[in-house]
Amino acid sequence: MPRSDTVGGSSQGLALSTAAFTMCFAVWTIFAVIGVEIKAEYGLSETEFGLLIATPVLTGSLTRLILGVWAEQYGGRLVFTLQMLLTALATWGLTLADSYGAFLLAALGVGLAGGSFAIGVVYVSHWFPKDKLGAALGVFGAGNVGAAATTFIAPLVMVAWGWEAVAQVWAAALALVGAAFWLFAADDPAHAARVASGAAPASIREQLAPLRKLQVWRFSLYYFFVFGAFVALALWLPNYLVEVYEVDIRTAGMAAAVFSLSASLFRVYGGHLSDQRGARTVMYWTFGFSMVVLLMLSYPPTDYVIHGLRGPISFSTQMDFAPFVIAIFVLGFFMSLGKAAVFKHIPVYYPDNVGAVGGLVGMVGGLGGFALPILFGTLLDLTGIYTSCFAFLFLLVGGALVWMHLSVRAMERTAGAEALDALPALPEMREIHDPALHTETRLLVGWDPEDEAFWERAGRRIARRNLWISIACLLFAFSVWMVWSVVVAELPRVGFDFTPSQLFWLASLPGLSGATFRIFYSFMVPIFGGRLWTTVSTASLLLPAFGIGYAVQNPETPYFIFLVLALLCGFGGGNFASSMANIGFFFPKKEKGAALGKNAGLGNLGVSVMQFLVPVVITAGVFGALGGPPRPLPDGGEIWLQNAGFVWVPFIVVSSIAAWVGMNDIADAKASFSEQAVIFQRKHNWIMCLLYTGTFGSFIGFSAGFPLLAKSQFPEIDSLQFVFLGPLVGALSRAWTGWVADKYGGARVTVWVFASMILAALGVLFFLSIGSFLGFFAMFMALFFFTGVGNASTFQMIPNIVGDYVPRLVPGLTPDEARRQVARESAAITAFTSAIAAYGAFFIPKAYGSSISMTGGAEAALWGFVAFYVVCLAVTWVWYDRPGGLLHALERRRGAASPGDAQPA
Predict the structure, then answer these.
(1) pLDDT per residue over 4-55, tens digit each?
(2) Cross-strand bridge partners of residue 278
(3) Distance CA 325, CA 151 (A)
(4) 3 state DSSP class of 316
(5) What are the Cα distances from residue 178, in Å, to 107, 108, 185?
(6) 3-state secondary structure 184-199
(7) Which residues, at least 6 apart from 815, have a Cβ–Cβ distance to it below 8 Å?
(8) Helix residue ranges, H only, 416-524
(9) DSSP designation for 620
(10) Nearby residues of 805 by Cβ (< 8 Å), 6 or more positions away
(11) In whole angstroms, how far apart are CA 27 and each of 173, 176, 374?
(12) Is residue 307 within a helix (H) or strand (E), and if so which, with residue range?
């Protein structure tokens, strides 16, 4: 019978729940061993294998949230027992599977084992006081050692009796543990007290309320690494060791067990340290040391040849088997400390919502175990580098460490606000905004473009000079950003044996990195100053320009190098956000819209300039011997593909010098990140991200993917001589149609834009079906035109939307304070939406590639775009343009009164 006294029950409950979790974890990771045999039996690819071993993790992750809530409502003893019995049935069912699809289906049921963690956290946390919770949850979490038991014992069972015996033995053991838990564990004190009092359990809505806090999601990111990456590596390492070090499955299983043991048993010590030293300190240790170890693991085996005085000097670097095992043991040690530290936070911060918060954090961590093996397989397929999995984890840990540190500093700043607010955010850049310290003559003090006398006397001339230099810099930035859209179409002709999927990845990655850089570039001008940042960001384009020029000359250049260069081209995409933010400070309200429209529209023209110029310059030795020899073509001709990179070098150098010599800094152009970060609480910020993704995201995505799409769908036509017209049409329509939104209202124009884009996309589908290049091309020109109109109309909406909600959400501001608040939020939303929308440059080419590889054509991707535009149209009409919508009456009044007062984009 279960014991009911608190002291005895706590010890017994902790022991039984730890044993149950250990067995569940052993079952949850069963595919790490039997998956290797199934992979060989069914001839699975790396990606298919990654999906198979990750599928149980998906179920275990997604069920954690609801199982944690149910444990709070119905008691951990009942929920834990039922979960184990159901999982045992599903595990036994693996032996009945006879195809890859059947294994995936059975794996979903096996994944229920992973949900046990959320149940156990609720159950254990109700037995112990706060000052002992870290140690108690550390003991319980040490049940992760079940993964080591599987990787250590299961290979022996599998070699002796086959993988089916592993599933049968593990299922029977789990059923026995479940029965023992029901018979000998006691109901936790909180559940027992609630049952005795007759009180109703908290509703699901009450349980889920804390999930709205960003802090919960930050804890989830921590757990995504310390637990999700642990699960992923526990599943991935046996196959990794077999492939990389060519050991047998038993040796690989034992080596992987070293990692699993380290990442599990030391969780007890991590809980103790969290109680004694503080969970935050332990997290710093976890992230810091993990980055060091992952950096070492990320470095692939490499051969070096140095041309020395007495001839070539050759040497190699690689991590042998023994050092690798030691490194993963150390990594597991710090991951185990981090797992305990994360769950030390939760009962302390959310004592009444442990089930929901712990379930969510556990779910996100579990999803890491699902997503990461798939990502590892995809990275391996893309790069051919086995250590790419550790390189990604290195970046993940770095991001988590930065977020944690910024959050800690924010709390410190709140605690000592007055003293810290007196300090500059970045002391090294203080002189840019402080006239007393400024050593250059390019600082504009007392810049007031709204003063008409000042504007006519000197302001307009200075502002226009900065605008035209900015346009030139942005034009070449867009050129470099999108250069892969042409280069990838020519790589097969010069001997690069890349698959269509690899080529679409190269066309997509600049969009991914460019959009990400935009998020950070949005906040750089107030910190570094517009002059310095424009100079540095423009000069950074030399890296991909030179890199492309050298890489394409040798067909033996590894694909991985091309991936890095494609990511570096994202520097050009990031420049848009900082350029728009900088120019916005120079112009008065009545001219700001036109200035931003020219900066954006003529900057976008860089895509068209590139797609026109590159096909021309690669046909001749423009740079002579300096540019390198041409590559022969199959038809007997020659091509200087390196000129696609080298041609931008002189333009980048000249524009960087022009930015440094001719641009200015504005002393008052500063705002803290916290002042701008208020936009993340505004729902209209996220709505406009959706709409601007539909317009600008489509423009930049179509620009990136159109050349390769046209060449793949109509190989008999030399489409590269025409594709530059699309970005040209889109850029010019953006620059010169802002008046349409001013006159008729941004929301109404945006509705008609999405309606027109739907029709144009349907037209593309129709002409593809009948094989008409002329119709296909004409419909794409229409799409480009309407994206340009929509770019202007969506940006025109932003200041009107902000001007409407600021007085309501921030009451008590003086008129001058309200004006500054509207200007600040409008600028921040404009920059942030441009960053999010730029991801279209990644997703649209990738959608083409995925559609072609899965269905043989681009039609599936185009139908997806049509559905997305329908959603955008509905959202625009419902929120802004319907009678009673936020902008319906406002824009009609503005249009009837004075169209010129609105701000075009």
Answers:
(1) 444 445 777 788 888 888 898 888 778 777 877 877 777 777 667 767 777 7
(2) none
(3) 14
(4) strand
(5) 20, 19, 10
(6) HCCCCHHHHHHHHHCC
(7) none
(8) 417-421, 430-433, 452-454, 460-481, 484-490, 500-521
(9) S
(10) 682, 684
(11) 9, 13, 20
(12) strand 302-308
Tokens at residue 22, please?
């250990």
What is the predicted pLDDT for the residue at 163?
A: 78
Q: How far apart (Å, rounded) are the C-alpha atoms in residues 629 and 643?
A: 11
Dihedral over alpha carbons 188, 193, 195, 199 (to 10 degrees): -130
CA dihedral 413, 681, 203, 352 (to 10 degrees): -10
The pairing of strands 302-308 and 631-632 is unpaired
pLDDT tens profile 704-733: 777 778 877 888 777 667 777 888 888 788
- The amino acid at 472: A
Structure token digits, residue 267: 């969780």
Both tokens of 712, joined, read: 């793949």
Q: Contact, 60 vs 181, CB < 8 A?
A: no
Q: Name 900's Cβ contacts closer than 8 Å, sequence gap at least 6.
A: 590, 742
Cβ of 758: how many Cβ atoms within 10 Å?
19
Three-state secondary-structure class, residue 37: helix
The pLDDT confidence band at residue 474, using thresholds 50, 70 and 90, is very high
Q: Read off the tokens for 873.
A: 């149209």
Buried residues in 509-526 as b, exposed as e (16+ CB within 10 A)? bbbbbbbbbbbebbbbbb
Nearest to 582 by CA among 531, 548, 543, 629: 531
Per-residue confidence (pLDDT) for residue 753, from 0 to 100: 93
Smallest CA-to-CA distance from 214 within 457, 473, 36, 403 is with 403
Sequence-distant (≥ 6) Cβ neighbours of residue 281 within 8 angstroms: none
Q: Could you identify the residue written with the tokens 């275990």?
A: 60
Q: Which residues contact 873 (CB under 8 A, 6 or more apart)?
A: 751, 754, 755, 758
CA separation for the pair 68, 59 (Å, rounded): 14
Q: Quote the CA–CA distance of 375 and 683 in Å, as a whole number.
A: 31
Tell me how far apart the alpha carbons of residues 653 and 2 are, in angstroms, rounded to a whole number.
78
In this structure, are residues 764 and 779 in contact, taking their beta carbons and an 8 Å threshold? yes
Contacts of 752 (CB under 8 A, 6+ apart): none
Terminal alpha carbon distance of the chain? 73
pLDDT at 724: 75
CA 18, CA 137: separation in Å to the nearest integer? 9
Instruction: List Cβ<8 Å contacts ≥24 apart for 211-218.
Output: 211/356, 211/357, 211/360, 215/349, 215/407, 216/350, 216/357, 216/360, 216/361, 217/364, 218/403, 218/404, 218/407
State the DSSP code for 225.
I
Cα–Cα distance for residue pair 337/271, rounded to 1 Å = 7
How far is 659 from 663, CA to CA, in rounded Å? 5
* Confidence tier at 330 by pLDDT (50, 70, 90): very high
DSSP-based three-state secondary structure for 553: coil
* Spatial separation of the C-alpha atoms in residues 455 and 461, rounded to whole Å: 8
DSSP characters over 405-440: HHHHHHHHHHHTHHHHHTS-SSGGGHHHH-TTT--S
Q: What share of the chain is helix, strand, coil (3-state, %, to 5)?
A: 80, 0, 20
DSSP letters spanning 805-860: HHHHHSTT--HHHHHHHHHHHHHHHHHHHHHHHTTHHHHHHHHHHHHHHHHSSSHH
Please determine, for residue 651, whether its predicted confidence score (pLDDT) is greater than 80.
Answer: yes
Q: Which residue has the tokens 């959400």?
A: 809
Q: Supply 131's token pair.
A: 């000052």
Name the one residue in this structure whose structure tokens are 């699309």.
Answer: 726
What would the two tokens of residue 671 be?
């705002």
